[in-house]
Amino acid sequence: MIQRMRPLPPPLEGITVVAVEQAVAAPFATRQLADLGARVIKVERIDGGDFARGYDTAAGGLASHFVWCNRGKESIALDLKDERGLDVVRRLVADADVFVQNLAQGAAARLGLDAATLCAAHPRLIAVDISGYGASGPYADKRAYDMLVQCEAGLVSVTGTPEQPVKAGIPAADIAAAMYAFSGVLAALVRRGATGCGGPVEVSMLEALVEWMGHPLHHAMHGGTPPARTGLAHAVIAPYDSYPTADGGRVLLSVQNDREWRRLAEQVLGQPELGTDPAYATNAARVANRGGTDAQVAKALGTLDADEAVARLEAAGIACARLRDLHEVAEHPQLAARERWREVGTPVGPLRTLLPPITLPGGAEADLGDVPALGEHTEALLRAVGMTDELIAVLRRDGVAA
């Protein structure tokens, strides 16, 4: 008989991460590490903790940002302005593999928690500094919130309509920095496995997001003209936009070449002659005549409901999608069919959440840990670093731990 192989363990099992983190960039990075099996110890302020806890109460009374970014972590609440609180962090770091911080510029260095200082004391440690603009340069001390960095990185200049630039609807700068911090940690762990040495990892929100601006940036630098803001339309392809349907929905479609246009004209628009009409036959002609092109598509799709429009477009081999609101995304048939939804525990009870998008076939499913209450693990972690009951009581009495 062939013995069934046991699932592989989580790839970061046995890795311990200590994070002095807040908001989105660092917490989202360390949540990715937790999802892959790392133990993540989140150090929070005693007076309210990570300020993202107070952004809103939309997630059953909890803040939606916090629920999103902090599952699977242990929370310890400490006053790092008190040397006794800082000593606890140093003890935690001494046994850690990774340290991550995104405090205001200069704050970590004043506490002795910057990457250079920690890595000098602990050669195997991987220490990550996440900042808004980097540790040097004229913007080093500038406050860096997501919307501000989106503007500085040029994202807002290419997003929106011809009349109105808009920021992205998600914290794109925070997410970009988080994902480069996450991948930087993974790369540093591989290097440590080969050399035995950890080392610093530096990520700035500006540099991360400017990297994501690669297409429009190269278009402008080398072509001379930045891409125009076109809403949901494409600057250089037509038809490539969203169109209203008879039931009040919207369907997006994208025609990538002239063969597809001829199929669209014949099988969806019901006007095969448009396939060879010089005003529409080539993409250049359709872009030059964008108003007429969009009018022909809108006229045809406007007689169909959204499901009929999608079915007809797919039958013709035309790339298309529904413009879904967030409630529709939460019930998306593809996510349901692939069984991507799970529940995690929180201080207000179980909440739905998605499995991490990294799937490792052959391995055990990600163990999605709970979203911690502020200081939920303080006592256990203080004991783990050698604190006695009497000392823990003193730290709590003096407001150093909570």
Descriptive overview:
The chain has 402 residues and is an alpha/beta fold. Helix content is 38%, strand content 13%. The chain contains 17 helices and eleven strands. The chain has helices spanning 25-35, 64-69, 83-94, 107-111, 115-121, 146-152, 172-195, 205-212, 214-223, 258-267, 283-288, 290-301, 306-315, 326-330, 333-337, 378-384, 389-397, and strands spanning 16-20, 39-44, 73-77, 98-101, 126-131, 199-204, 240-244, 250-254, 319-322, 341-344, 351-354. A six-stranded parallel β-sheet has the order 3-2-1-4-5-6, sandwiched between helices. It has a three-stranded antiparallel β-sheet with strand order 7-8-9, covered by helices on one side. Strands 10-11 form a two-stranded antiparallel sheet. Helix 1 (25-35) packs across helix 7 (172-195) and helix 7 (172-195) crosses helix 8 (205-212). The longest helix is centred in the middle third of the chain and has 24 residues, at 172-195. The radius of gyration is 26 Å and the shape is elongated. The protein starts with 15 loop residues before the first strand and ends in a 5-residue tail after the last helix. The model has no long low-confidence stretch (mean pLDDT 95).
